[in-house]
């Protein structure tokens, strides 16, 4: 654009060509006249050397003043180009460059004095917005005018710009002021920086940066994301600063060395952080954590939207980082996370998923932001888990204190948890786990793995701090599989029980929840022992403990196998297979033998090594010689016929196998005939009694001896152990349905008590279920827990011995530290290895000549082949 043109239209320039001829002078410049000749025989005239630079430069200098004075219409650009050409061709290029540099400086100084100095002084926050905007507008106009004029001057001095500066000799790389030569455009930009922004007459750059920061601050005070009316002006100023190089030897327009990056950007970022530090402190003092996070998000959105219109992308990202650092960096983020009443812990309790998602997103780019969130989440979960553990233990202790306590023992009693408390503990733990899993999925990056790891670490601590975690989880599974949860059963075409479509989903959720808690248990071998006991009861006691779905049992074992391997579920799968094989065996027996035994007997043949059964209940006869074997349970003749028939059938199919009968694990249904009541004449009263096998053995004794029998007599007739007989008699004579009468009356059974048939027995239904009285619940549970622990400890020793021998055989030589480390890893899926126990097992293996110590180092072991 031509500032001096009346209509402001473009300047029309003719194509300028470099002259193809040379002449010694121009109009007004002394030199040889055209056509002057030299005669022979005459001494040539010697003209005094004349400097051509001053008159030619005066013409160019006047043109520069005319360009800056908006009077370029009257100039002949072709003539000016030829003038510059002749100066360069006469070796005056460096002088011309220096003179142009001085002319630009003079014009820029004049512009500063004429346009910037008269403006009102800057008064900081009290300055009117109009004065701030006026300052920036004047500065931008000066910049635009200078660049337009510089383009015209560059066209006039094109020959100097293209031919002299690039072809200068090494000695001519500096101008008359001793500064390095550069193109006319970079020279003009640098002169603007030196004589306008860094003018000796006025601190233009400092004031410009202050004005920019003040306008930005006032824009922030409005609290809106809408662009302000002066966003375009700010963009023009920042573009100008980006075009101006930073002073120094590497001056140029490359990123990182401009006035924008060196003068404005650091001040802008520092002012941003200071502003938001003040604002965040005010907001944090009066807001909840959720409100503060929402306010921080609004600030970030505002800076992002407004910054996109007038600052560089890198500066915008740095600005957002400064806002995050001021609002959530340092201890601010920790204060928000741990804010009392509304921090992460309370948001987790109140299911504030939206606020938690906002916290996760905002702290993602803050140093250690997510690390602090994970630690806070882990601490909160451990705290909630401890509350659950304490509440359940308190309930259990209250129940135990109200129950009969076992007799004092020299061995400390292990903690015993009732079925109700065990179920309550697992249910509450699963509720907590489900709530946290939902939170991670919805709030923490759709399942951030690092947060999942923190949750798993917390639950490992919670679960293993509970003294009976393995037993309680096994009891919970047992309770669900016996009750079937909320499942409804249907029968398929083959008559087998199955689950409906919706029930399959519920069962799958249940199995996943169980396996999720199971993974946190370190003592998985203790869980295995209790699970085998519960599984055996579900499979063998159809009236009390029978599982509602064999498919669910197998699905549960399949998940255990995936987590712990085949050896973990091998015996439990064998138990299920035994039940299935026994059913087929009984069908074959009834079909092939067809022996009429007067009764329907069902036998389940079980593999002894798979089932967690104690030795059969036996006693020693007082008349038996010392050292002879125990006396077994005495079966009545009516039962022995069926038993002998089955033993013969089984022996014909399997050679070399011996059957050991477990009477304490069986059940029976017998038909009892009682005399009619005296007031009623008629047939005897009939009842079908569902009892245990031990109760059946006692009742059958009264068929041959209908009169009263003493406890001692029944002991001889049945062959039962004394404790088993007493509990059986309690079941029949002291329970809800009293088939026998006890004399004297009372709940305790003594050896001299008398028992007879209760002829006045009545029941509301024909089928009567008589529960077998077990040992006192607390005492029995403690004894069972103690026995289970003893078996587990012995099993651990065997496993550790085998693992040590395998490792040493493979390595041949290992240090004690390496052995403990590898042994811990090898047995991690079963239990947590105790280093002290490892030392004891190593000593045992050394005594048994499996290992030996190295003669050079006692802490190094060697395998003995």
Automatic annotation (TrEMBL):
Coiled coil, from the record: none
PROSITE patterns in UniProt: CULLIN_2 (PS50069)
Biased composition (Low complexity): 401-414
Gene Ontology MF annotations: ubiquitin protein ligase binding
Keywords, comma-separated and alphabetical: Isopeptide bond, Ubl conjugation
GO terms (BP aspect): ubiquitin-dependent protein catabolic process
Domain Cullin family profile: 468-733
InterPro entries: Cullin, Cullin-like_AB, Cullin_homology, Cullin_homology_sf, Cullin_N, Cullin_neddylation_domain, Cullin_repeat-like_dom_sf, WH-like_DNA-bd_sf
Region (Disordered), start-end ranges: 395-416
Pfam families named in the record: Cullin, Cullin_AB, Cullin_Nedd8
SUPFAM superfamilies per UniProt: Cullin homology domain, Cullin repeat-like, Winged helix' DNA-binding domain
Keyword Ubl conjugation on entry: yes
UniProt-listed PANTHER family: CULLIN (PTHR11932)
Family named by the database record: Belongs to the cullin family.
Protein's recorded name: Cullin
Species, as recorded: Piptocephalis cylindrospora
